[in-house]
Amino acid sequence: MMEPGSSLKVIKSQRVFLSNEICPALIIIKDGKISEIVTGSDRETTTSCEVLDVGESLVMPGIVDSHVHVNEPGRTDWEGYWTATRSAASGGVTTIVDMPLNSIPPTTTLQNFRTKLEAASGKCFVDTAFWGGVVPGNQSELRPMIRAGIPGFKCFMIHSGVEEFPHVSESDLHAAMAQLQGTGSVLLFHAETELEDQRIENEDPCEYSAFLNSRPDSMEVEAIQTVSQLCLQYQVQCHIVHLSSAKALDIVKAARKAGAPLTVETTHHYLTLSAEHIPPGATLFKCCPPIRTQDNQEKLWSALRDGHIDLVVSDHSPCTADLKKLETGDFMKAWGGISSLQFGLPLFWTSARKRGFSIPEVVKFLCQKPAELCRLGNRKGSFLPGFDADIVIWDPEKEFEVTEACIHHKNKLTPYLGCRLYGEVFATLVRGKIVYLKGKFSPNPLGELLLAQ
Q: E-assigned strands of 140-236?
C-alpha cells in the first residue's frame, strides 16, 4: 500500500469527478501535475506505473479554503501553520489562504508579509497563500504587497477584535480602492457597521439571544450597502466574507445587476448551525457576524442554489479555551470564532445532500470558486491537464462522529463535537504526493507557499 509522503503516478476509481459528471477514470500524474485523464474503454490501458485503485471511493479536486486564521506568528498558542495545515489535509483541504489578522504582526506591510512568510516556511502540509490587510493609513503598502505575491486584501468595517488590526473608515476605503484600481486585486470586507448600542437592558449574557440581539441583520445590511456603492464607483473586485444575513442579498443582486464586480461567500457554520439550537452558555457557537435563525439559514441555501452566493469557506478562527469563557458561559465576553477547518467538506456535504445538492456543486462552491477568488483558478480547484494534482479521495456515504481524538486543530474546541457527519476522507494529495492517508500524515510538510503572479 502507498505510504504518506510518497508520490503517486496513477489513481484509478469507479467514481472520478470530471467536468460536472462522475464516471470511472484513471488520473495520470506527472511532475506534480495532472498529465492526463483517461475515461471509458481506454481506461484499461496498461501502464508501467503502479496504480492506486481506490474502488468506489470518490476522487475530486482538493478543497480550497480561502478563509483561514492561522495566527502565526504571535498567537501560535491559538493555532499555527503545522497544526492548521495538518488538520486541513485530514479534511481534504489542499490549499488554504491565511487571513492577515490575528497573527502578530498583521499582514499590513511588506515587511510584515516577509515576517509571515518566514514563520510559515517549512511548516505547511498543504499549499498556503496569504491575504494582506487594509488598515487606516497603509494604502502606500498595498501595491508593494501585490508585487510581492498578495492576491488581495481584507478590511474590517467594525472593530476586528484585536487592537493591532484597526477597522477602516469610508475615507480609508476610498484611499485603498484608488490604489487597487487596475491591479486585478480583490478587496475583502468584514461587512458589519457599528450602529447605536443594540443591547437590551437586563438580558442574560449567557443566553445566546442576548448576543444575537446585539448584532442584528441591519449591521450587515448597512455595511453591504456601502460596499456595493464603492464597488460600483471604483470597479475594483469586492468580496463579502462570511455573509450571515440573507436580508443583505437583495442589495448584492442589485449591485451585480448594475455592474458591480461583487462576490459573496458564506461559511459552514451559517449553513449548519442555527440560533434556535444554541444552548445557554454554549460560547463555542459564538462568531461574528452571528449564527442566525433556521429560517435565515434556508434562505442562504436558496441563495447558494440560485447563484447569489459564490462560495463556502470555513472562516476557521480558533483560540485557547480561556478566551471562550466556558466557565462563565458569557456570550458577550467570549472570543468570537469557530474552528472547523478540518470538517468543511463533511459539514457542507451532510447539509447539502439533504437539500438535493450534487457533487459537482460541492466542487464548484468548495474548490473552483475559492481558487478563482484568490487568483489560483489557473492551477487549483479543477481536474484539468496542467493543473496541480491536488486531490481528495473520500466516501460521501460513510458516516462518522466528530470526537476529540480525531481533531487535529491545536485547540480541540468546536461546536461540532459529537456531531455525526457524512463524508469521510480517505486520502489527500498535494501536487501528487500523499499528505494524509487513513489517519496518518506525511513525515514532513509537503506544502508550498503560494505567491500570486
A: 152-156, 186-190
Q: Shortest CA distance to 358 belongs to which of 63, 89, 17, 64?
A: 17
C-alpha torsion 45→48→52→58, nearest 10: -30
- Number of neighbours of residue 1 by Cβ within 10 angstroms: 6
- Secondary structure of 385-444 in the HEC alphabet? CCCECCEEEEEEEEEEECCHHHCCCCCCCCCCCCCEEEEEEEEEEECCEEEEECCEECCC
Q: CA-CA distance, 27 to 43, in Å (whole number)?
A: 10
**Ordered mean pLDDT values, 10 residues apiece, the chain (453 residues):** 87 93 95 92 58 95 98 97 98 98 98 98 98 98 98 97 96 97 97 78 91 96 98 98 98 98 98 98 98 98 98 97 96 96 98 97 98 97 96 98 96 96 98 97 98 89
Decide: 217 and 181 in contact? Cβ < 8 Å.
no
Which residues partner with 292 through β-bridges? none
pTM of the model: 0.97
Please report, as a single letter, which amino acid is at residue 75.
R
Grid coordinates representing 453 are 503572479
